[in-house]
């Protein structure tokens, strides 16, 4: 495939945003699509009643690689990220999606419509919804980069008879997340508690309102442990919320619960990664990036998106 042509990126999480920013800055036309209501992927913030906000996905990020560290330093200087919860930990400000939104500034982004099918268009690709309705105004793309969870990427590839070897090896742990608001004193002193016991109900409990830029100190986000989440994966959100509230009240004092809701992340945390920075097939123009490539960290997703963009740019050189 030649140098010219618009590039589609499916998924507006941190991997997709990193790839989009690098390609855009290199002079390529990029279109990013995401089925969610806004960018960020699992770096997400949920709005509740009465102005409540919960970071119900990724809770923080760390930076070890100098490329990501420089990005975090820039975000911090501009108020898009801030330290929280321990040494070397940062969060987006005023919500976890802020870094992805910043990376996608000025880039063509379409949210709220799910890509259901990839269809050949000459030597490129068209994107369609599951019912065949054309997306992105029916435009043809020279390359399509998948940055959604690997099972969703595999379904798109299977639908057009393609494959990216290694992608099927990725495994995820699910997670039920409890978003809770309460009246009364803080349930514990520290910003968050972590429990590595696989038999525990909760793997993580955070006083979400303690994060910089948040309002409402009485908000708690609790991630159920993988085993508990798997055992209750197909149950209804209301029933799960009720069980998780009871389990949390047995651990910490909550006072009066004003709001409680549960969200299911079917593909929450990578348990087995491909082990390579990205996947790319130059002959088809299809590629994959995300935490499924390098492992379950925001930084790894960013670096994977960057690596995929570099593969595309390397192919595009004359």
Automatic annotation (TrEMBL):
Name of the protein: FAD-dependent oxidoreductase
A Pfam family it matches: NAD_binding_8
